[in-house]
Amino acid sequence: MLIIDYNGIAIGNIVSQKLNIDENLIRHMILNTIRMYRQKFKKYAEDTIIVSDGGGNWRKELYPEYKANRKKSRDESSMDWNEVFRITNLVFDEIKENMPYKVLKIWGCEADDTIAQIVYDTQEFGNHTDVMIISADKDFIQLHTLGNVSQFSPVTKKLVKNESPADYFKFHILNGDNGDGVPNVLSDDKVLVEGRRQNTLSAKRKESLLVDPKSMGEEVYRNYLRNKKMIDLSECPSDIIDKIMKEYKSQDPWDKKGKVFPYLVSKKCINLLEKVLEFL
User: Fold this and answer.
1) Domain ranges (residues) in the chain
2) pLDDT in tens, 23-68
3) Cα–Cα distance, 92 to 134 (Å, whole number)
4) Which residues, in sequence order, are bridge partners of residue 4?
5) Rounded distance between C-alpha atoms, residue 97 and residue 253, angstroms
6) Which residue(s) pair with 48 in the sheet?
């Protein structure tokens, strides 16, 4: 099973490669990247799944500061983000319509949640399969503990590895995630959005909290639960899990194989036409 984090290969490449915001160029880049990873990881690619963020993220309802600084950064950027999102959403819909892959965007959650639930499903009796996740997101390291999961970063162009994914996950909860607007467990909710310095979380304090998350009092424990809710992919609400799995199990994309060539022709993806079999 090959699971591709769509936002990572689409928006991530636009930013890292400083691409011109041109619909045809971005479409070609996205499609070629999918083709490339299917070829690189052929043993996983028979079952290819493309996953995107949905709107209405459940985390922001519980913790409004979640990823708040990302919007601020976009607002301060010279890039036309409205056009970027228009194009990447358009191409995502085209892939869902014309490519023989399961393609998921679930309202209420991030791609992380959808990917995690698909991976958890491989732990059920009769569903075991080896999984390769294409994403630079280190949140997926927590899934490495399952044994059948590997991860490749489109950013570093290397496999994502950690000697002790279980320990990494535990410390991740304590340390928080600045990129996602999640402070360490000693710091209040608004410390990052207000640009204040976080309270120092020493190694001694970490060891104490690993033994007992309540060891430093109720406020720190409350922050621990905040971080766990934001970071632990198994914390996804049950109603969203149900939506994810219903959509995942209902899709049968194989009859779309005949649409791939006409689609590439209609979008004038000339360089990809000679490699059409690599999409199938």
Assistant:
1) 2-162+237-279, 165-231
2) 999 999 999 999 999 999 999 999 999 999 998 999 999 999 999 8
3) 16
4) 50, 134
5) 9
6) 2
Q: Which two tokens stand for residue 268?
A: 């004038």
The CATH architecture that domain 2-162+237-279 belongs to is: 3-Layer(aba) Sandwich (3.40)
Q: List CB contacts of 194: < 8 A, sequence separation 6 or more.
A: none
Look at the alpha carbons of 21, 99, 58, 145 in this order and tell me if their dihedral is positive or negative: negative
Handedness of CA 118, 122, 124, 125 (dihedral sign): positive
Calpha distance 171→187 (Å, rounded): 15
Within 10 angstroms of residue 42's Cβ, the number of other Cβ atoms is: 11
Distance CA 254, CA 99 (A): 8
Q: Is 165-231 a domain of CATH 3.40.50.10490?
A: no
135-150: pLDDT as tens digits: 999 999 999 999 899 9
Supply the pTM of this predicted model: 0.93
